[in-house]
Specification:
This protein is α/β, with parallel strands linked by helices. The chain folds into two domains: 195 residues, Rossmann fold; 158 residues, Rossmann fold, CATH 3.40.50. It has twelve helices and 16 strands. The strands form three sheets. The protein has a nine-stranded mixed beta sheet, sandwiched between helices. Helix 3 crosses helix 4 and helix 7 crosses helix 8. It is elongated. 49% of the residues are buried.
Length: 369
């Protein structure tokens, strides 16, 4: 019988849809702005994938929303070994829970959160504990995370059943959220966690755009601008590739946020999900997005403001995907990925899509959920 540790960061990802670019120290502000916690639901997707293995697993977890509540409808042999100090959990709760689970000699430590949570798990459990991250945060640059909550469950199932036994070290990365909100991406390596080896389940670390890509980005930007329609909103997603559009138009840009333009003029910078919906509820709109470098996520990583509600309002045919040839080549044939939090939206978008890769140049590429 395998002993599995489960830690959920209940506030992970709450800053995304409301444009806070992180939740560290801002959970109350995220709630005030209307954010809805989703970490527990993502943990439940993982648990559903390993249901049926109750006879092979003992789960040690935390009380309340840090673990206990996600397991309620299942018949796992579960034991609560950590009680957070209050309902408003903090990073110190994650660190302490991870330390206790390490002392419990768990075979696998599963945690739900983002890069900050991964850092806390590393601080508490260290490099020797085998772990899988369930992606739920705003920032997910580290390679300790599975591609989706479902993939985390599938990988854990293989591990529990003894069908995958190899492990490797994976990077734990995090960024300074204060600098991140200013548009400065300062990534720091904190250490390594041991993860099961199964490439199709685990995400790559995020790769920055290369300076050599700049000319490609301007070519793409000119192609997009050439085809822009009058009297339509254009939702400009984050990233250096989309930034080139704003630079050519001479408009202020939010590198790690979502901007809105109309008739090639800036309407507003750094919008939240609700602000976007307010503008486009009764007017035609298009979304311009680029996948994350190295990881290939089209939606659900760093652009949670462009939510499933925004996508459904705009419509699949009004999504414009742009990427440099280098970014596409670095995917090595792997499909672009979706993690909007809505299976319906992910299913609607999967398939094949046109990607603008240069001036009058496009490729057809696969998108998977």
């Amino acid at each position: 019988m395998k002993k599995i540790g489960l830690i959920i960061n209940p506030i992970a990802g709450m800053g995304g849809s409301v444009g806070l670019k992180g939740t560290d120290g801002l959970a109350h502000e995220a709630l005030r702005l209307g954010s809805i916690p989703k970490a527990l639901d993502k943990a439940k997707v993982f648990i559903e994938k390993i249901s049926g293995l109750e006879n092979l697993v003992e789960i040690v977890t935390c009380s309340g929303d840090m673990g206990e509540n996600a397991l309620k409808k299942y018949n796992f042999n579960a034991r609560i070994i950590y009680f957070p100090r209050s309902e408003n959990t903090t990073s110190s709760d994650t660190v302490e829970a991870a330390r206790i689970m390490k002392n419990e000699d768990v075979d696998l430590l599963v945690f739900t959160g983002g890069d900050g949570t991964a850092k806390n798990i590393y601080e508490g459990a260290g490099e020797s504990t085998t772990a899988i991250g369930i992606p739920a945060g705003v920032k997910i640059h580290s390679s300790v995370f599975a591609k989706t909550p479902g993939r985390a469950g599938e990988l854990a199932k293989l591990f529990i059943e003894g069908k995958t036994t190899l492990t490797k070290e994976a990077e734990v990365l995090d960024i300074d959220e204060c600098e991140y909100r200013k548009g400065n991406v300062n990534t720091r390596l904190f250490g390594y966690l041991t993860v099961p080896v199964e490439r199709k389940f685990m995400q790559n670390k995020k790769a920055p755009s290369l300076k050599s890509e700049k000319s490609q980005q301007y070519e793409i930007a000119n192609e997009v601008i050439r085809d822009m329609l009058e009297d339509e909103y254009y939702i400009i997603g984050p990233g250096s590739t989309t930034r080139a559009i704003m630079e050519i138009l001479g408009l202020k840009n939010t590198l790690i946020g979502v901007d809105l333009i109309y008739n090639k003029k800036l309407i507003e910078n750094d919008l939240s999900e609700n602000q976007i919906l307010k503008y486009i509820s009764s007017s035609p709109a298009k979304i311009i997005i680029t996948p994350t470098g190295g990881q290939g996520y089209l939606l659900g990583r760093g652009n949670q403001q462009i939510s499933d509600k925004v996508v459904k309002t705009v419509g699949k045919d009004n999504i414009i995907i742009i990427a440099t040839k280098d970014k596409i080549a670095n995917l090595k044939g792997e499909p672009l990925l979706l993690d909007t939090g809505s299976n319906e939206t992910d299913e609607m978008l999967k398939g094949y899509a046109k990607i603008i890769t240069g001036f009058r140049e496009t490729v057809i590429y696969k998108i998977n959920s």
